[in-house]
UniProtKB/TrEMBL annotation:
Enzymatic class: translocase
Keywords (A to Z) from UniProt: Cell membrane, Membrane, NAD, Oxidoreductase, Quinone, Translocase, Transmembrane, Transmembrane helix, Transport, Ubiquinone
The organism of origin for this protein: Tsuneonella suprasediminis
Protein family: Belongs to the complex I subunit 2 family.
Topology versus the membrane: Multi-pass membrane protein
Protein name: NADH-quinone oxidoreductase subunit N
TM segment ranges: 6-30, 37-57, 77-97, 109-128, 166-187, 207-230, 275-294, 301-322, 328-349, 372-394, 406-427, 448-468
Phosphoprotein among keywords: no
Main location: membrane
Main function: NDH-1 shuttles electrons from NADH, via FMN and iron-sulfur (Fe-S) centers, to quinones in the respiratory chain. The immediate electron acceptor for the enzyme in this species is believed to be ubiquinone. Couples the redox reaction to proton translocation (for every two electrons transferred, four hydrogen ions are translocated across the cytoplasmic membrane), and thus conserves the redox energy in a proton gradient.
Family annotation (PANTHER family): NADH DEHYDROGENASE
Chain ranges of the NADH:quinone oxidoreductase/Mrp antiporter transmembrane domain: 128-421
Domain of life (superkingdom): Bacteria
Amino acid sequence: MDFSASLSLVAPEIVLSLGGLLLLLCAAWMGDKASRAISIAAVIVIGAAAALTIPVLCGGAMGAGTFAFGGQMRVDAFAAFAKLLIYVSGATCLMVAPRFFDRWGAMRAEYPVLVLFAVLGMGIMVSAGDLLTLYIGLEMNSLAAYVLAAFLRVDGRSAEAGLKYFVLGALASGILLYGMSLTYGFTGSTSFDVIRAALAGDISTGALIGLIFVLAGLAFKISAVPFHMWTPDVYEGSPTPVTMFFATAPKVAAMALTMRVALDAFGAQAAAWQQIVVFVSLASIVIGALGAIGQDNIKRLLAFSSINNVGFILVGLAAATPEGASAMLVYLAIYVAMSVGSFVAVLMLRDANGDYVESISDLAGLSRTKPLIAWCLLLIMLSLAGIPPLFGFWGKLVVFQAAVDAGMIAIAAVAIAASVIGAFYYLKVGKVMFFDEPADKVAGGNDWAHWALLILSTAFISPLGYLLTGWLGELADKAATALFLVT
């Protein structure tokens, strides 16, 4: 494939790169007074990248024709599915940010630029066909994310979150890099295709250690147990729009990257990593559920909920089948909608002075003071718990079905039983909002963007979402097929 063909394949990344550089110049010349205009322009840039990505997914692009720059990047349907979820997450994060930061006079022009470059890095991550490309995309995303976590400089919690994220993120990057070095040393290449071929026979001890280190580094990025310790503190301390971003876009990118590495590069040695994934999956489900029970801060509760949901998604990876990969993508799409809705609802919880309410106890009686927000938040919580007929139930169902079809009935049974634990803390939020005496803390008004996102998210996870199961399942199947196609 010639260079021009490769450039046409990575057109979304080129749009994001040029758009980010242009908006960076605008931010430098026009200053913070142009932050809203730059945010709108950033959403338009992301929309343009999404428009270039949609045909790749709908066409089910796969095979050698999707390889760019000698296989360094794979612009297939699988990457397109993940990119679209990332773009939606990035755009929603930009839409809700100005109102939040204006409360402290902290909306700066570089915020949308950082989000754009983070989205660019994540796009490279999910398209990676080589360990070097993987690392470049990962670090581009991480460097922007560290700054975003500490963006609210007037809040000490934000600075603490940024520092913790940076230190632990650097540790995880070191672990990942060491694993990549071992993998290169024992396979002789950084290309996923060559690594897969080299590991087709018996795996050596050194290569196995490299595999373990790579998966450990990626486990940090998806906040899976036992590399989850940073998540509650970073989620609580980061500005809420940034927390929403962390809970959606990087989660999708890291999970898609983990799928590509495990099922493609290490696909010939599925038996070597399946038991690791099974342990991480079940541990994340249980610890995520138990950790959330004692939380009073809604953002910390959602952090443990994120860990819990990662565990359920990894059940599909443990199956190591196209059906499992398709189920994971369906779950990720539903999870993004639930996370966006939950954090938008949190952003709408403000007191009479305009300060944001994060304590669950302060939501007491919300159904009588702000009934629409309370009902939307309740439906989202129940959907996160996987209670039918809400759409979150469908995500868990397809993942468990994939595990059962792969012969992992015991794992599916344990995961189903553990999901009952998680239902407790979701129901606790509903109990506080609907049965406790009103605390009269939430009193502030909200703009149309927040209401639109909340209502759309709630409609998607409501029983109306089942109307999309055929369409969503078809797209997920195309993406999974592209991932499993070996050339």
